[in-house]
Amino acid sequence: xxxTFPRGFRASGVAAGIKPSGAPDLSVVIAEEPxxxxxxxxxxxxxxxxVRLSRRHMEVSRGAIRGVTLNSGCANAxxxxxxxRAAYDMxxxxxxxxxxxxxxxxxxxxxxxxxxxxxxxxxxxxxxxVARAASSPTAGKDAAAGLxxxxxxxxxxxxxxxxxxxxxxxxxxxxxIRPSMATMLAVITTDAVSSAQRLRAVLSEAVEETFNSINxxxxxxxxxxxxxxxxxxxxxxxxxxxxxxxxxxxxxxLARDIVADAEDCTRVVTILVSGAPDDGSARRMGMAIAxxxxxxxxxxxxxxxxGRLVAALGACGEPLDxxxxxxxxxxxxxxxxxxxxxxxxxAVEPLLAGDFEIDVAVGDGPGTARILTSDLTPGYVIFxxxxx
Amino acid sequence: xxxTFPRGFRASGVAAGIKPSGAPDLSVVIAEEPxxxxxxxxxxxxxxxxVRLSRRHMEVSRGAIRGVTLNSGCANAxxxxxxxRAAYDMxxxxxxxxxxxxxxxxxxxxxxxxxxxxxxxxxxxxxxxVARAASSPTAGKDAAAGLxxxxxxxxxxxxxxxxxxxxxxxxxxxxxIRPSMATMLAVITTDAVSSAQRLRAVLSEAVEETFNSINxxxxxxxxxxxxxxxxxxxxxxxxxxxxxxxxxxxxxxLARDIVADAEDCTRVVTILVSGAPDDGSARRMGMAIAxxxxxxxxxxxxxxxxGRLVAALGACGEPLDxxxxxxxxxxxxxxxxxxxxxxxxxAVEPLLAGDFEIDVAVGDGPGTARILTSDLTPGYVIFxxxxx
Lengths: 388, 388
Description:
Two copies of one chain form a homodimer.
Chain A: E1 9-14, E2 26-41, H1 49-60, E3 64-72, H2 80-98, E4 105-110, H3 119-132, H4 137-145, E5 155-160, E6 166-172, E7 185-190, H5 196-208, E8 214-215, E9 225-230, H6 240-260, E10 268-276, H7 279-291, H8 293-300, H9 306-315, E11 326-329, E12 332-336, E13 339-340, H10 345-348, E14 356-361, E15 367-374, H11 378-385
Parallel strand pairs in A: 3-4, 7-9, 8-15, 10-14
Antiparallel strand pairs in A: 1-2, 2-3, 2-9, 5-6, 6-7, 10-15, 11-12, 11-14, 12-13
Helix pairs in contact in A: 1-2, 2-3, 5-6, 7-9
């Protein structure tokens, strides 16, 4: 179940013909009226046209949003004024069909950077897309399917909170995933009662430990967007903590799915950092480990090459006493006080045949972080080396 | 010709048995007396024992250095107090054989991080190593061979400057190459007359555009060291500019060789950044492009995927107007003003079958940089995934 699990939302997805394959590539999520919304966007200074448009619409509408339209097959990034016009026309087409202000519609795009959107295919498909929008569970799934690029499975999540308010969400991932502030495309809906202001705080907190704590290839996208909309249709106004908990659960499920579906990855690796001066420092250390090609090559080989983690930590610019680093692979301590424990590393290798966990303690500070990453594989390189 | 091309230096290399393969793994470069020297080291805060020892020896000796000993097959990094003792013992052994202060000897190590040095093999080999040190051209080559880890060829360079002073050098590279301040292991010798103070300025300027402008895999090593020694035996005191030019030529040749010999790389790609606010900004932009896995995957595929360059530039944190980016692949403009020029990209692909050049203009500032990198290949991943 996805974005239509919470009451008050309709969704649909169609194949507009953006993708040559004929797979679904255009989606919409619509509330019954303008509802409070919050959004976080990529920090990339080459942000795509739809990101720049959606930022403006969030400002102008003061976070009262009627709908979101999303396409895959083309990022509409590095597309100049023509791209800005295309993003606006997508929003205007939805607004026309739904009957709302254009500034009440957000736009997300994902796919190759550079090509222009085929508006001759998108605009004619908008009428059918909006007409088909329904509140059934399958409608949410259809919408999620329309986001997929190289994803191999649909990413959706749904939870219920105290009193029965609901949170649902959909996302897409696969590559160019190293969120800075936001991440990838994700739409989260809830039928909880909430102000736009509260939603901003809830989303900001929820993404930090979920979408902002995954790292597949160190590449920050031009299009990362996470949108949260609250219909209020459950009639329940949860506490900020309860709402954050529900949203975080959905985000965590989607974030985990994104890493598990990383292009050609064979393992999900969880990096737990502890003992850092603060959580931010811990997260930067964990991200630096996940950024390292040599570290992610060792994950692919199932090699407990802890020395590469030490080198990555030392290079990341965070305060570090290398003589205090303890590293544990899947429960087996391999380094203590910055040096080898003496354990036979070949005995650790069998533990790394599937998903595994690494604990990295860097001192006695209170900072911790939990980073999800995947291995770097020959398949990833081959796949991403092919001209698109 | 290598470090023994300049007059006043002896060198040698032997197989001490550090590497199971029996390949050369221990080298020495010796001046006839303590000579002015300069050195730059990795910025990694998990710096290896030999780096910390050499830093101290440069301070204590005030840059008057008699010799350098280098080993491959073990980085002596993340080795705790035992590692510190081993680095000291290596320096002391050379000092004993040569007849100088231990603080007049520098130590460099390269190889896997974590294992302890086999001192039972190294110490007995020191007598023969120093005894064999000669000033012949082959002696310089023997020393260069002793540095090799996964290198496939010996990296050496030699030039003559105005009046006949000489500069020679040797280096090793192959992986974990993303210099921060220094890079990898390299020893540069000259028979020019120079103070240690002048050598520091010369080395600092020479490494910036050479070793500090290459990037193979984004990974900063724990052991990077570049040492420059001046015997003064030519009797010639070149101007700072002349000496810098000679040293830079040697560094440039060695840096290029390091990239060309990157593990399993199939192409050397030169990234020319121009129009940045200043040279430092240009270099960080070029490095960010080279850091990107997705960019280096596209190099492997010979794919002019300029959009990935735009995304990498946008993510690097430098001031950027994405609508002013012009990108040219091997002479063919593919993007102007941040969007596609309309050129048929499949017609560009054949130009990228071998080494190629990319021009990236980001505005009208005076800053430029020239970064050398290599492609990311499935072979690199497989090679670095194997437990060592």
